[in-house]
Specification:
With about 210 residues, the chain is α/β, with parallel strands linked by helices. The protein has helices at about 30-40, 50-55, 75-80, 95-105, 165-170, 185-190, 195-205, and strands at about 1-5, 20-25, 45, 65, 110, 115, 120-125, 135-140, 140-145.
């Protein structure tokens, strides 16, 4: 298959996907894109605007994964800091819903004279507001997809571990050779590799049920 991995980060969602697919990863930060390329040398990695790339190239892919930036939607950011001097108020970035609506409608209707029959998933944090489009909730995250995602459980995401080394072990990435980046933030932003594999399998009917401990 041809797979598009948008807002790729260092590739947590992609880490356990089966080999043999043609994967294109889009990441806007050159330093992060370099790390992704080091971990996944067979993937095609592009430094570009993922939002615009989706609009221009969606027809070329069989499976699309999108993980738009989440801070402006986060209930933790909103409840913990806004109005208390810690975080400045910001508008929620509505590109998230632009992509959800775009993918939802091109997946079953003619668009620009071309029917797109691929699978997609858009991932984001649980929001501080009622979602404008109803998602599936898996492991304290929202997922919008044109397929059903079976429930799975992760006991802890280790986001309160205090340092990045525990997260490196948990998510399977060693960042010792990289400087000038916020390693803890990068790892916190990673989808757990097991979750990424589970959702990939659900998209293509390879898993009826799953549980991760």
């Amino acid at each position: 298959m041809k797979i598009l991995n948008l807002y790729a980060g260092i590739g947590g969602n992609r880490k356990l996907w089966p080999e043999g697919h043609e994967i294109t990863a889009i990441e806007i930060d050159p330093k992060i894109a370099k790390i992704y390329q080091d971990f996944f040398p067979k993937d095609k990695v592009m430094v570009a605007d993922a939002h615009q790339y989706l609009l221009e190239h969606f027809k070329e892919f069989d499976f699309i994964w999108s993980s738009p930036p989440c801070p402006s939607h986060s209930r933790i950011r909103n409840l913990a800091g806004v109005g208390c001097g810690q975080n400045e108020p910001i508008y929620p970035d509505m590109k998230l819903y632009e992509e959800i609506l775009f993918l939802e409608h091109i997946s079953y209707s003619a668009f620009g004279g071309v029917r797109w029959s691929g699978k997609y998933v858009v991932e984001n944090v649980i929001s501080y507001y009622k979602p404008l489009v109803i998602p599936q909730e898996i492991n304290k995250h929202y997922f919008w997809a044109n397929f059903y995602i079976n429930k799975i459980t992760i006991k802890s995401r280790l986001h309160n571990s205090g340092g990045h080394k525990a997260l490196e072990i948990f998510k399977g990435f060693n960042l010792d050779n990289y400087n000038g980046i916020d390693k803890r933030l990068l790892l916190r932003n990673c989808v757990e590799p097991e979750t990424g594999l589970h959702i990939f399998n659900c998209a293509f009917g390879r898993l009826q049920q799953g549980k991760i401990l």
